[in-house]
Amino acid sequence: MLKTFPLGGVxxxxxxxxxxxxTEELPVPAQVVIPISQHIGAPSDPVVKRxxxxxxxxxxxxxxxxxxxxxxxxxxxxxxxxxxxxxxxxYRQTAITIDAEGDEWLDSVDRxxxxxxxxxxxxxxxxxxxxxxxxxxLGGATFPSHVKLSVxxxxxxxxxxxxxxxxxxxxxxxxxLMLEKGEEMxxxxxxxxxxLGVDKAMxxxxxxxxxxxxxxxxxxxxYKGISxxxxxxxxxxxxxxxxxKALLNREVPSGMLPIEVGAVVxxxxxxxxxxxAVQKNKPLIDRIVTVTGKSLANPGNYRVRIGTPVSALIDAxxxxxxxxxxxxxxxxxxxxxxxxxxxxxxxxxxGIILFPASESRRVRVTPxxxxxxxxxxxxxGLEPYLLMSLAERDMYDIVEANKVTDCMECGSCSYICxxxxxxxxxIRLGKSTVFSIIRERNSK
Length: 444
Hints:
CATH architecture of the largest domain: 3-Layer(aba) Sandwich
CATH topology of the largest domain: Rossmann fold
Strand content: 15-25%
Distance between the termini: 52 Å
Number of strands: 17
CATH class of the largest domain: Alpha Beta
Structural class: alpha/beta
Radius of gyration: 21 Å
Number of helices: 13
């Protein structure tokens, strides 16, 4: 029987239209807009000014504090301005705009395609290189990788878990990465193992990707301690706690991190980025992005420079269909709608989905019928209908008592609700308010 997590979960239509589309290299854009905050933690500080000439891979914003990440130029050219822009979440933040001129890279970056297996750096040097190269989690959370690899005193990691699940419908960038850069990814996994001091790594891949499973199994057979596990198709299996339960049968306690049960989780894209950083001295300046949709002419996967406008990706995939009603940044379950398409691609951009107008409208909201479907599908064992009702009434003390902070915002409750209730919207409101209350309480 295939492994999976036992509590809750859904299986939306997969719609993996671009799974067989090889990754294409998107041309260097004429201009990039690079936000200084593309990660969880403190924004970086710009170290360039208007008029400066930069090369590809050059540091342009330095991390501020431990939980932060460096930002590098993805093009060569002239810094046009450092100003506020609206990012893909709709928030205003500082960004560095660079006008591209040619494609001149730093000499320190090894641009060869030759596979480099031998890992010469020490554990400390690996952490330092990941920090220096601005590596963050590419599964969506964008947590600085050097922080996650720094096991806190008194804690111990015995297993590295690699997330190749890609359970969100439509998205296929991780799938293509495993097929096309599997060797490099597995070397990256061995680097992560060395950094954590573990001799065991488990790669979880859902069984709707049999080609990736077989491919990575063949490659990993030559590496001691790395195993590949086929998982049952179920959303949100890519979430850390659910993946740990599926692979290790360990339960991460409420409010705790995976390290509490001896595990650290990294995405396959992160493993590849770590390989490039450690073995090729390449900063995180590009990534694979899925561009897809039912009406799109050429759904595909594109390697794209950070800071490239989303509109350039859409153009490469055939342009915006006439029936488009919504453009979503990320997957359909956890992604967010864009209010314009000229926002920049950032480190956390995994996919761009164009939905037809017929699928972009919310259904009519009707009273809760107490069917309990939202409870049945909640992978965290919460009561979404109750959390929504409490948040509607500003009863945040009871919202907190009912563990709203455990919600991963996967959207399964809203997806399954027959009454069209905006459960996740109100839970997000309750969760953000409770976190504000907690911060205020702790500051006293």
